[in-house]
Design brief:
Elements lengths: L2 E6 L6 E6 L16 E7 L6 H13 L2 E7 L8 H14 L6 E6 L1 H13 L6 E5 L2 H7 L4 E6 L2 E8 L4 E5 L8 H18 L1 H7 L8 H17 L15 H11 L6 H18 L5 H13 L11 H8 L12 E6 L2 E5 L4 H12 L7
Helix pairs in contact: 4-5, 4-7, 5-6, 5-7, 5-9, 8-9, 8-11, 9-10, 9-12
Length: about 350
Amino acid sequence: MNAQRVRVKSAARDYSVYVGEKILPQGLQSHLPPKVPVAMLVDEGIAALPLTLAIFAWLEKRASRVVRVRIPAGERSKSVEEYGRVVRQLAGAGLTRDGWIVAVGGGVTGDLAGFVAATYLRGLPVIQIPTTVVAMVDSSVGGKTGIDLPEGKNLVGAFHPPQAVLADLRWLESLPPAERRAGMAEVLKYGAIADSKLFASLAKGPPRSMRKVVKRCVEIKAKLAGEDERDLKGKRALLNFGHTVAHGLEGIVGYEGLRHGEAVAIGMVVAAHLSVKARRFKKKAAEKLKAAIRAHGLPVTHPELRWDRLSPVMARDKKATTQGIRWVLLKKIGKADLVSGVTEKKIQMALEEVREGKLPKG
């Protein structure tokens, strides 16, 4: 198998993430036992792609039976209703306790399939096959699964690490350009919070090859998730840099109006401005981050960056405590901390600066 391997530590079981080309479908053989029933949950947008069909054909030969469940594309599929539809389909098909889940798709499919695996029949093993940049570098790694509520993102979920993650880079060739650009926001995030060299390599635009980039992001995610799997120590929360405002914008604008990566890009700019106001991050560094985001064709502002609109949604942020929202702020490129006690006034000022395209002020 032409792949590089990253080992991820977990209290339930350690597992590996494989990054490379042409690792599917044969890469499944080392992880999926023969003659077991399998439910293949697949993003309907890629259901007809040759690689998807090859995986399905391989599973039909390997498994005792295969139940194929198509997941509609888009964040709306991470819902209580879609979760109910999927588990009812599995129950109707008679999937039993010796069954396995194979998730093929982006972050939405992976999150939903992982939560189905965590809860259906009190837990089934799952193999994640991420097909987007975001899913490869972020959502498929770390064991978090979940669905959304009307009140906010990822409010219902479980920790359920996969048996393996198989990131075949050939999937990225089929991504629409806008989707690929949006995924690079999460990649820039890793450089901003944990690796200045990675950030520097991406500062002027997309890389020629994604293999090293994806592997490095997975290494960072594996380290932070391994040190703080249950998100209790504040280390794993660093991965949410830019996400507080991003989730707020998504709640206001809707998931169809703004791609997740685009929202994260804007959220990172706001967090950088807030870092300057907290007197912990240099103005030039904030502008450097903004320039890198622009170099990847991502937005750096939005008209809905208004406190009165965002605050009700951000109050439900999963990093929030009874003392209020905790923010992931930068000390320098490659170094971040989780910070409490950021004043409402500073947040309002940062939102205004970014909304109006102004330079950050300390």
